[in-house]
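Ticket #4471: structure output looks truncated?

Reporter: J.K.
Steps to reproduce: submitted the chain below (332 residues) through the standard prediction queue, then opened the result file.
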Amino acid sequence: MSLRVISHLNSPPVVAIAGVATIAGLPFLDAALSSSASLSVLKALNVAAFATNVVAVSVPGRLDGQQDTEMRKGSLNPTKPNAGKPNEESALLDESSSSAYFLNRSRTLVNPSGWAFAIWGPIYLGEAAFVAAQLFASDATSIATLLPAVTAPFVAANLFQSLWCASFRPSYGVGWKKYVSVAMLAGTAYSLSSVHAGGCALMAANSTIPSYLLLPMTVHFGWTTAATLVNLNGSLSADDSTSPTTLTAMGHSSALLATALGAGLTIAQSAPAYGLTLAWALAACADGMTKRIPARSSVEEESLSKAANVQRKLCLAGSTLCAAAAAYAAVI
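Returned output as attached by the reporter:
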């Protein structure tokens, strides 16, 4: 199937329905795979789901890909908002494609610095190693014992990630459509939480299963937890009718929620990797507030700049608490 055909299938209603079908079908798939599926079926499903994710990520045109291009050209230098050649039309400022994305970059209070996204490298490498290892594992190995508990949510997580790649695009920038990507990221995080919970429950009952097998999925779970909040705030900010008061409330509550989840789940599930991932994300959001692009409206900017100072402190405090929770979980 060519990319042209796939692009025609990529419509907000189709992607939204696919997401609903994935979350609705997850309990049934989990029941089927955890009880009666053969090891070869589990292996094949994990390989196919991860391969789908990798292909989806490689398709160009996502909004984050546009941002990276503009940053490299110097057209989105946060310290020089009007950088670039005078006659150069920035893809991010084009009214017909992604001006809404520029709005969310300048108005959102949950906007991590670019270095934070380097975490995708370890996540994909780790999950690729997991998929490769399980493919060649025999029935008697620890990873084979783990597969029935984690395959269904792992498959769902990869499908949701693929649907996010389909929906985080300029064509989804209007009305309810811009929240489709938020829902797909939330579905990814939820599915990965099930991978983590199922794996931890199995490891508690079987001490021979090493915890490092879950490490890449746990980091992915932590990152998509934070990314869902980033995407939600960005989508809300892209609507220029949203007031600075609403943006401030959403930004501050997101920082507090990320902190609560990072510290709480880390301690409750003895998952230092999850806490450290949230600490990383919150530190990047704090740094992002020192580099944010000023809002176009001077009146709005006065309010948002004050809120950004508070947001930076909330994120720094949250990062510290999550790191402390991770240290506590690691030693108890």
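Triage note (M.O.): checked the attachment and the full token line is present. Residues 70-99 have pLDDT under 50 and may be disordered.
Status: closed, working as intended.
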